[in-house]
Amino acid sequence: MSVDPVRITAETVVDGVVPRDPAVSPDGRWVAYAVTALSSDAPRPTSALWVTAVDGSSPPRQLTDGASWDHRPRWAPDSRQLYFLSDRTETAEATGAGEAAGGGAPQLHRTNADGSGHRVLTSFEGGVVNHLPLAGQALVAVVVADPDHRGIAPRVWGEPGPRDRLALLDTGTATRPADQPIPITGLGEHHVQEISARPDGRTLAVITHPTPHRDPVRPRWELHLLDTGTGKIQDLGALGWDAHSPAWWHDDQRWHLSYLAMQPGPDGGQAVFDLIPDSEQAAPADLTEGLDRCPLELAQVAQGPPLALFAHGLDTEIHRLDPRTRSFTRLATVPGLLESLTSDHTGARVAVQAANATHPREVYSADAGDPARPPTRLTRLRPELERFDWGAQKRLSYRARDGLTLDGLLVTPVGRVPEDGPVPLVTWVHGGPYGRYMDQFTLDPHAPAQWLAHFGYAVFLPNPRGGEGHGQAFAEQVVGALGAGEWDDISDGIDLLVERGVADPARLGIGGWSHGGTMAAWAVGHTDRFRAAVVGAGVTDWGMLAATGEYGASEAGLSGSVGWEGTGPHPHDAVSPISFASRMSTPVLIVHGEADTNVPLSQAVYLHRALRHYGVEQEFVVYPGAGHGLARRDHQIDLLERTRAWFDRWLGRADVK
């Protein structure tokens, strides 16, 4: 058992820190990153900036004190200075990166790589939300938030509201750049979502929305090109659904711009598209068509083609785009999670956030030109977890009843192996449906596998059809067919674990968050094999979600219809868990954030009232002020303890018959 005789506590789970926003310097010598708390009861987030040698030859060095929200580190093209955003309230003349507490609107800051020479560069009333130093000049592109002076005035749909707008700052000649921004007026009232600079700094790709919020009926992503010398805008029209992650590259003749978008939108899987801005290209080319893996991120490389992360089963891969064939070549496969890929100007040195089966998320560096060389771990952010033993994690591969190849994970109770005999099994379904479990350390209030393993439970983490990691066709299988083959895949995995003697068939539980909560609600409406369920922020009525959720049209695509399409019955009724409430008898714990706009609280209220009507044992918990995920420390602790107590009540631990 654990070196510490006391089992892990909920406080230990949520009181850690995680890395954010790694950035490799253009010269390939340094990695900057932020470190922030997993949870907090404070009214605003805080984070500290750190810098470490990319080869791990020197220990990490803290640049800011963590009293403010210091984030989004970006290197100057010469690698000598670091730009970042911070909400500290010091003045532009202040020196020393940690002299003032946070609380103001985030502004653009600059410091030398050693932490000296700190300056505050902007004083925009609404603050800065994004920034990008441009090569070959002293300009920094900034995305600036409009101040919101509306107060309690009525909100009228269609009337202009505060936007995020684009501006250029001359940080080399202006004494106070905030007083002399170069406004970009050609975008009108469009809301700037994301920017990417061509490696020569002369052109910016700008992705916008017509309004600050995604239109739930007719969403639109548009592409514009900004000439940084003249300020002129070229409009290139609409992109695909959820377009993001733009990356420039050159094929020795012309510039290309690649990006990620859903294909087909609004549902299905993510694809890499490529367009040539100055050509007569009829439509962007799909560079990932037919692949059995799914793109996750694009990382622009200043002097070469972009790098990319791909989900492939339980692993994540690093790829490089071949400019000649416009196809991706795999450089390395890493078990578990990779995210936030960043590289030097040649693409030779990369850094990434990674997590595997035994370690939580840390920053690693790697030599992209030598994939056989193991990555170098650069951080050690959660040493407090090293004193505990953990449940053994086993990769699963099995075939669905229709022959489809599936994967997932089994986490066994701490100190036990599958051969020890059947134990209580909790199946915890991932969100999405376009999501997945990776072969990574899973210790999270919203996915509490290792937490439950510490209290005697085996945990099954399935990857049913509809998720990412197996290509476009795999992802599309749930569109308009939610709860069909997807549920069979989960059920077949549970049957497999029962047949192998791992799971006690008399003590089965199920739960999940977001789409995982939806599938838990679906499960208890279609079988009575579970003794307890947890429905976290789950959808119960897809028609109501299409009408009230922030994604609107995409929910209608998944479920097949919306409620305004005649008198019904509607296709979405057949895939809504609430339609099967009369069949539910399993005790259900319903947990939901009060301020959730993705899956509004009304979804949980609907299920709560239906279960009350039918006399089903249940507990309904609302977290005040919480959104689609719980950020407050006290809320996360409560969710962990309440989830464990619910399964303890109805399933019992491995040593309790």
Automatic annotation (TrEMBL):
Gene3D superfamilies cross-referenced by the UniProt entry: alpha/beta hydrolase, TolB, C-terminal domain
This protein's UniProt keywords: Hydrolase, Protease, Serine protease
Transmembrane segments: none
Pfam family membership, one: PD40
Presence of the UniProt keyword Signal in the record: no
InterPro entries reported in the protein's UniProt record: 6-blade_b-propeller_TolB-like, AB_hydrolase_fold, Peptidase_S9_cat, WD40
Ranges where the Peptidase S9 prolyl oligopeptidase catalytic domain occurs: 449-652
Keyword Nucleotidyltransferase: no
Source organism, top-level taxon: Bacteria
Region (Disordered): 94-117
Listed name of the protein: S9 family peptidase
